[in-house]
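Reopening this one. Same input as before:
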Amino acid sequence: MAATIRDVANLTGVSPSTVSRVLNSKGTISKETKQRILNAMEQLQYVPNDVARNFANGSSRNIALVIDATDAGAYANNFFNNTVFGLETVACKKDYNLIITSAPSNSKGSSVVEKMMLGKKIDGVVLPISLVSKKIIKKVETLNFPCVIIGHPEEISVETNWVDINNVQAAQLAVKHLLHQGYTKLAFLSNGDAKSFNKDRISGFCRELAQQGHDVKPQHIIHGEPTLNSGIENVKALLESEEAPDAVICSDDRLALGALRAAQEKGLKSPQDFGVISFDNTAVTELSQPDITSIDVDTFDLGVQAAEILIRQIENSGCNICQSLFSTKIIERASTQRLLNNKS
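Same output, byte for byte:
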C-alpha cells in the first residue's frame, strides 16, 4: 500500500499539518524538521497526492485549450502544432498541465467551457477566436475567470486578454514585396471568407494597394476552400479572365501550390510571368518548384505569450489586461524573385 502523509508524520514525530506545510512550502519550519520530513518521504517512497493538495489549495494546476471539434483541419496544421508547443512549454515550466479539449462550433464552446470553469477542473482557459461568443465572454467576466483569446475579438466590447497575428500588416508586407518585384496586377485567394484573419488580410491587401495608387478590383479577391484543387481551379479562372493578374497572395500553402500548378498549366513561368506568395511557411514552401515566398509568423511565440499571460492572470488576479499583436516577416524565395530573374 502506498505511504500516506500520516505515515510520514508518524515516522518523523510531527503532525500531518506540519508535513503538509513542507509540501506546500508554507509556514515557518526549522531546517532540521524539514530535512527530517524530506528524509522520511524518501524512505517511505511517499508521493504527494496532487489532486488532494490542489483541491485544498483551491487550484487544479490545469489550463485548457479549447478547439473546434467539427474542424478536422484545426488539429492538422502548422499554426496549431506550433502554438500548442508554445503553450505546453510554458505550462510545463510553470508546473501546470495543458488540457486540450474540443467543443462543437455550433455551441461556440460555451457548454464545455462553462462546465470546466464551474467544476473547477481548470484554473484558466485559452480560446480560439472561432469559438468566442458574447455569451462565453460574459460568463468569463462574471466569474472573473482567467482567459486568453487567440485572435482579436473585435466584435466584443468587453476588455479581455488576447494575442493575435497582425494580419493587416502581413498582407501589406506581401503587397509591398510584390509591387517592388515589378508585379502590378495582384489578386488575393483566401481559404474562407468567414475567418476573421482572412478579413484582416484582405483589409491590409486593399489598404496597401490603395496607398500605392493601385485600383482594388473586387474580381481579384476570391474565397476558396483550403485545398490544392481550390487553388488550381480558382487561379485558372483568374488567369482566363479579361483582367488576369500577374501575381497572387494565398492564405495557405495548399492554395499557393495550386496557384503554381495553374500557372504552369497555362504555360506561364514563375516568377517571370506569374508571382505566388503564401502565408503558412511550412516545409511545402521549400520543397515546391519553384520554392514559394512566404509570410512567416512565430506561432510558437504566440503560444508562449498566451500561456504566460494566462498564468500571470491565474497567479495575480489584479494584473492588467494584456493584448498583443505579433508582427510578421517575408521569407523571400524563387516564386516572386522577378527582378533577379529579369537581371539574369
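So the earlier flakiness isn't reproducible anymore. For the record, Residues 228 and 254 are 5 Å apart (CA to CA).
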